[in-house]
Protein 1
Amino acid sequence: MQPPVPPAPGMPRDGADTLGLPEAEMRRLAHRVADLVVDRLVRRGDEPAIRADSPAALRERLGGPLPEHPGDADAAIDTLVAGALAFQQHGDHPRYFARVPGPSSFAAILGEWLGTGFNCIATSWAGGSGTATAELVALDWLRAFLGLAPGGEGILSSGGSIANLTALAAARDTVDPGGEGSVLLSDQVHASIPRALRLLGYPAARIRILPTDGALRLPADAVAATVAADPSVRIVVASAGTTNTGAVDPLADLAAICAPRGLWLHVDGAYGAVAASLPEEAERFRGLSSADSLVTDPHKWLFQPYDVGCTFVRRPGALLRTFAMAPEYLKDTAAAAGETGFGNLGPELTRRARGLKLWLTFRMHGAEAIRAAIRRGIDLAREAEEILRGDARRFEIVTPATLAIVTFALRGGDAAGHEAAVKRLSAEGFATFSTTSLRGRSVLRLCTLNPLTTPDDLRGTIERIAAG
Ligand SMILES: *Cc1c(COP(=O)(O)O)cnc(C)c1O
């Protein structure tokens, strides 16, 4: 038997952490932090939905010279809470209606804490077979939840942007290995799609943008005509829930155009795809399971804290072929048959174990409760539309409630008036929402996917918008 390695001078190993915090202090601070988090969660509706301060004021609270000596832990935590955490958007606030909210569940927060506390790395099978399996199972459950066929590759990443980049890299390597083809997309795709294509080396001339139809959807007949006339098209990008209006492109029609020609159909469902879990929305998402790749963002409408995005790829081995590395210093971590090394399926090598929180959420709550929470967001958008229609003197609906988004305009309102309304409500702290632009027209937009939102929250917010 080897004698135990003696602790470094001045650093007892028993019950201490790497920088010498004693066990009792670790426990005390951990409980304090847990209480701070739960205290905030139960009072989240009382705080401003969004809050910012000037760079100078924030620096004043958090800055100063490099600390050379230990400081009081409680005071440091208090400073961080009051000086940093108070100044942000609270995507889980019941009146946070801007962009896409992030109403994280506590189950998922617990999963995140465990992964961080155990310092998990989900890269190689040898170094993280347990966390890899939790991620594989979470991906299987998510496939089943969305009604996708089992099998194929999947990987979690930081969010929709990296998930889209991951999918499009696999698409290019599979159907456009020379990188000389072109990509077809609509004028409503998320900005992360053209950015990913630029990063992958596609020049603007080979990113073909088609105008959407009256419902802001990619028209299948225009896609059919374009791919028939332009044999350089290799990839078609569709949206399953645009960020602007929630529109879902005609996925089944697009799949029927792409499949016989060997074109890769990528579907960006970062915001909306989770709604495919609802039987009453099935028709809207018909064809989703035929996508060659699909992205969804569990940190939006699947009640996960930031960050977690997800890529599914159906063509066998496409992710592994695109991302596998086998350098000499990773040889002893190589996966055998049946083992998955996620470091070879996407652009990150060292990566967080994002599957833990998703696994824990499904396991603790079950799909039925999660579906009900998603359904609530859709009902709330309809309710918001009703309230807005009830005040037709002041509001006009621009796009009716679709998934959990409704867009509208102030009668006689222009971009400046709309932006002023957002600024005013956000500054008051009562609620926050956002503007966007549809075919050059400025609109107001509510995204209502927090199941804690009440009809009173909607009414109060809409009344305050009208009062401007
Ligand atoms: C939010 C969103 C993205 C980007 O996702 P991030 O998690 O912010 O990187 C991509 N596509 C759509 C449709 C989105 O709504």
Protein 2
Amino acid sequence: MINFSIAEISKIVGGKIAGLPEFANQRINQVITDSRTFFNSGYSLFFALTGPRNNGHLYIPNLIEKGVKTFVVSDKNAINKNATFILVENTTLALQQLAIYHRQQFNFPVIGITGSNGKTIIKEWLHEILSDQFKIVRSPKSYNSQVGVPLSVLLMNPIYNLGIFEAGISQPGEMENLTEIISPEIGIFTNIGDAHQENFHSIQQKINEKLNLFKKSKKLVYCCDSGVVKTEVEIFCEKHLVEKKGWSLKNNPALISFTTKTVNNFTEIYASSNGKKYQFKIPFTDSSSIENACHCFVVSTILMNDPLQVVERFEKLEPIAMRLEIKKGINNCVLVNDYYNSDLNSLAIALAVLHQQAAKEHLYKQVILSDIQQTGMPPADLYKRVNELLVEWKIDEVIGVGSKISYHFNLFSIKNSFYNSLNKFKESFNRDNFKSSAILIKGARQFEFEKVSALLQQKAHQTQLEINLNALVNNLNIFKNLLKPETKIMVMVKAFSYGSGDVEIAKVLQYQNVDYLAVAVADEGVQLRNAGILTPIIVMNPEQDSFQNIIDNRLEPNIYSVELLKCFKKIVSQNGLQEFPVHLKIDTGMNRLGLKSESEIDEVIQLIISNNWIKIKSIFSHLVASDDPKYDNFTQSQFEVFEKQVELFAQSFPYKIERHILNSAGIERFPHKQFDMVRLGIGLYGVTNTGLPLENIGTLKSTVSQVKTVNLNETVGYSRKGEVSVISKIAIVPLGYADGLDRKLGNKNGSAFIGEKRVPIIGNICMDMLMLDVTGLSVTPGDKVEFFGPNISILEVAKNASTIPYEILTGISQRVKRVYLQE
Ligand SMILES: *Cc1c(COP(=O)(O)O)cnc(C)c1O
């Protein structure tokens, strides 16, 4: 936490004080950059960050209303007499300068972590392993960006004696700033993968860019088993006089060598360094976890004379839940699950998400919270601060589970109840106490709060579709980058947002300020309005019976025929309304809905001009084969017809009418035809035609219910289709065609991913179940199985089922629960 006055900060960042001079001597203890997750006014300084897609200056009036009095800005026009401003050239840079200055106030050791994978896990595990020996300040969650790193370092204060911060970059040149902010004494280079490779011309360049973090470090921990990493690290260490702390799992020459052995669900790891030998074990068997544990062990040997003190800790390491899960709960509740090792920073972040989930539907807000561990604060101060946070975020009720939080019950001022243990909570659990409420369930792993979540969760079907909301936003931004800043974006959320869920996706899109949402039928739009979505919504296939509903809910219909227009006009006039917004669809070759002939178009123009009941917001058409180069000539002809027809309207109306024709593949392949708006669909959900670096957003998952042996003369499933050629091991999974998995994927046309292996679907897929051939693998009931997601692309599944990704996505049935992940 920082403690500088505004005048001091202004000096540190080379700014000028403007606006109201009153608060120049105000001491600041909190820095904020995201107005949306902000609550407490107190002594906060807001940095108005600007980027290609957002502008923090826009939120200043709102923040002043909420009581913020001090701002760092780069836009003079934002300055007014209601607050004190520090004017700088670049607000991100100013934030970084402040962090550099703050960092220089401390000389306890700091560990810096970079590399492609494992940064957050290593950081969290080091924290677990070392927390008896050190008081540790670390990056919250995976705050590792140009903004996240300074915000993390600003958390340093004198009560700590070890810092652990992670740094991530996606482009050349970015590490420079982070190096000075973190200024690590000890470095960890995790590994190198192909993420963001498009921005680097070689893997060596990417490694070296990341290594810059350690230019002034004393020691660098790295794995010697990847040839290219080893070579680059060793050249780097020679050049910058950094001591090499290399390790190997494969007997390569290194300071520390490890060997491993799998025993049940544990891996035993043997370390040998300078003639000394150590042995420890971890409750994981996958190769990434082993690699992460080796990094942690080497760091322990650097920080402690004798790592024996901590080897036992490795056995208790837990998986790190880096994302929050958002699920539907019982009685119209929304659950926000956070199994992240509780600490105050992550509590503040989780409360912000809870607030966002509750705000639109005006839900009651409840927090179920475990004891908070390892904060280094005296418990009385800690729970007092927890209560302050709950009050700041206007939480209605807190339920404490655990002996420590219960002991401090008298520090809580909002409605509360406390239970000494999870069992006590479960004994007195009553479903009726949780109704129309947004509930944050937050507890460190050992409290087993997934059991609390299970009590409150709506559906218990083992099969689920996980939707990664961060990936969705990332995909949206990739498409935005293909467009001019002024081009509007309509996002297609029809068909349950291509199967990924309606309200949750729409909430995220509204939060990202998309210009329009599009649904297929009026009911879908009404549902969004009921959930508090205010973004304009267009109904693509309006039916005459739904017109009154459309008007009542301020939805905007797509008018595709003269008849529809006449009918809608009549209803608008009956409602006594004027200039009701509509969108006109022109048929330029699809021969589906749309105005086609010039006479139809003339008639529509006359009908609209004759009075002012209706206003044309936009005119659009839809491409037939935007994804297929074979039909590019046809696509060109569609553009031509569209432009000609649009011209007829432009000449007839005095106001501007927006034009749009591109869908996702169109945006990728014909960005010069973006006109005033584009309609983004499948691309948002991760499917690309041109190799854009989109992220997968949906993962269809289930768990193994039973495992059995099948002999040579036996078969698997209906009609004896699943034949085996050796004695086989079969895993049964509760996912069938009624869940939306295409039956064509049976009989080895499709596969699943289990452990780290691909396995075929054997036999016919049943209504509610399928069978996997897991011969030769160690598989037990409860194991997770992926059907599409990071390891199996939706495109591949579509191909195997002889269909298109759209059908795979929209086909996942409603009984499969959707779980939303957000970082
Ligand atoms: C569904 C739809 C889109 C989006 O298409 P994608 O191929 O998913 O990008 C665009 N425009 C209209 C009219 C649509 O119906």
